[in-house]
Amino acid sequence: MTPSNRTPDPAPDLSGRVFVVTGAAGGLGLATTTALARRGAHVVLAVRDEAKAHRATAHLRAEQSGARLDVRRLDLADPDSVHAFARRLRDDGVHPDVLVNNAGVMAPPRTLTPHGHELQLAVNHLGHFALTAHLIDLLARGRDPRVVTVTSANHRRARIDFDDLNGEHAYSPMGHYNQSKLANAVFALELHRRLNAARSPVRSVLAHPGYAATALPRAGTVTGVRLLFGHLLRPLAQSPARGALAQLHAATAPQVRGGELYGPSGLGELRGTPALTSPAPRAQDEAVGRRLWEVSQELTGVPFTVPGTGDA
User: Fold this and answer.
1) Catalytic residue among 171, 177, 211, 262
2) Cα–Cα distance, 76 to 110 (Å, whole number)
3) How far is it, in rounded angstroms, from Cα 210 to Cα 45?
4) pLDDT tens sequence for the chain (312 residues)
């Protein structure tokens, strides 16, 4: 293995800390879980497919004796599932230090959830918004607490159409994927501003993986997207382990500050070691942040008030 292909492990010793990783059964989420577990973290795998996650954890435990891995069901498209997941964590006395909002879907045909929300917006943004709201007070009591929200470099190509969030009048599989990834960035930066105002110890940080060889592009059922990202461009992709480096850095590196975005350092931010980069100007628009926050509360039915230092 040449040095250029070696995957660095950026995480310090994480013994005694609890990480919740959504979408942890495969791809970037499993790569993140693996790296965290290797450093001694207790990782809660928040997944829709529990059987797949249990198979993955069996392999991890075979490689890493004593790995602390906890599989729990979470369907981000279902607000009831999000609420139940958070309630079970509380009931079981699990106190997360870091939440990694990693799970996502990419470029399906237009699909509505049972609650009437466009699937990509629901899973990629609204579910994570609600999950963070449910867990923020627990995180505020954590050790070096953080919320890491995984966006995409594609967020720079997007705008949020508040008048047609669900694509009722015009739907583009990639356009609405990009919109959901911009929503991730807008949310994380608005959360950062509110955490700062409340003097909360929690840091809200962004990361994007560049172009990684995961199942996400291949899972999109739109033929052109699947062909382009799942096959033609796949030889250019980096491994899931390397794609996860930016979110691992955001979740664990001591020097990370709230409101920062980390992505690959190589050409076009497609691959490479983690580096500090800049969100799109639209993501930093405070008026857009406030509007998305209000709309997200309305669509999820979950009030989101950031606790202050005296409330944690």
Assistant:
1) 177
2) 17
3) 23
4) 333 334 444 557 999 999 999 999 999 999 999 999 999 999 999 999 999 999 999 999 999 999 999 999 999 999 999 999 999 999 999 999 999 999 999 999 999 999 999 999 999 999 999 999 999 999 999 999 999 999 999 999 999 999 999 999 999 999 999 999 999 999 999 999 999 999 999 999 999 999 987 665 544 555 554 554 554 455 567 999 999 999 999 999 999 999 999 999 998 899 999 999 999 999 999 999 999 999 999 999 999 999 987 554
The topology (CATH level 3) of 11-300 is Rossmann fold (3.40.50)
Q: Which amino acid is at 288?
A: V
Q: Are 44 and 72 in contact (CB under 8 A)?
A: yes
Of 142, 82, 136, nearest in space to 300 by CA = 82
Q: Which helix (H) or strand (E) holds 169?
A: none
Q: Is there a contact between 10 and 254 (Cβ–Cβ < 8 Å)?
A: no
Order across the sheet with 203-207: list the strands.
68-73, 42-47, 18-22, 98-101, 146-150, 203-207, 261-264, 274-277
Gap between the Cα atoms of 251 and 245, Å rounded:
10
- In order of 97, 105, 235, the CA distances from 108 in angstroms are 33, 8, 23
Q: Please name the residue that has the structure tokens 């405070």.
A: 286
pTM for the model stands at 0.92
Q: How many CA atoms lie within 13 A of 121 on its CB side?
A: 29
Annotation says 177 is catalytic: yes
